[in-house]
Amino acid sequence: MTGLPLSAYQADDRPAVKEIQARNALTVSCMHRAGFAGFTGDGLQAAQPPDNATALPAGAWGYLGAEAAATLGFHPPRRSAPRPDPAPAGSGEAYDGARVDCDRQTAERIGSPPAAGSRLVDRLFQESTTATARDARVVAATGQWTACMTAAGFRTTTPEELAHGYSTTPDPTPAELAAARADADCTARSGLAGLWFAVLAGYQRQLIDHNAQALTAQQEAVRAKDAKLTRLIAGEGG
């Protein structure tokens, strides 16, 4: 998914990690200036992204990766949860006031990216996936995938329907793993995934051409925010 044309205009998980780093660095520096030298930060860490090879193994495109199918089924890889805040490194009215002020200053310095650009990219992603699902080439390949799954003993009409049927259990079951393995095999046999992503990329390129000016502004905003976070982290670290 990160290689799709529209992904170039969308922030990935790395800026989220960098923003947590910048927020902690700014808050620690501010609290030290306020007289709380023992403050070491809230300890909050951004959730780490899953391995790219198994981040999105199943979807409308079928299933990618026999190894992932054998271990994950239709359950996404577990992500490390953010670490909760420890007990405050101080107490009383002075500490509470300093925290409020430092949080305000930190938020002001980091700022917020323009929401309109992100909403546009999200909308175009949705439009491109909708168009892909209706494309005659994808419909035909999905039919081949369905026939393959039926022959393997799994009655379903679409990859999404199959995956949804196993979404209620906390962990993959043996039946789910068997279905995922069959999905991966039928995806390869039908060529569904390769076609699906190729068609999706084509629709996205068309949408980019029709929204070039707004998307360029969004891309510049994402890059500017990343550069700003880098400067903030370096400045406080020095």
Topology:
Elements lengths: L12 H21 L24 E2 L2 E2 L2 H7 L20 H18 L4 H20 L1 H16 L7 H6 L9 H17 L1 H19 L1 H26 L1
Antiparallel strand pairs: 1-2
Helix pairs in contact: 1-3, 1-9, 2-7, 4-8, 4-9, 5-7, 5-8
Structural description of this entry:
With 238 residues, this protein is mainly alpha-helical. It has helices spanning 13-33, 66-72, 93-110, 115-134, 136-151, 159-164, 174-190, 192-210, 212-237, and strands at 58-59, 62-63. The two termini are 37 Å apart. The model is unreliable at 50-54 (pLDDT under 50).
Short description:
This protein has helices spanning 13-33, 66-72, 93-110, 115-134, 136-151, 159-164, 174-190, 192-210, 212-237; strands at 58-59, 62-63.
Strand content: under 5%
Shape: elongated
Number of helices: 9
Measure the end-to-end span: 37 Å
List keywords for this structure.
238 residues; two-stranded antiparallel sheet
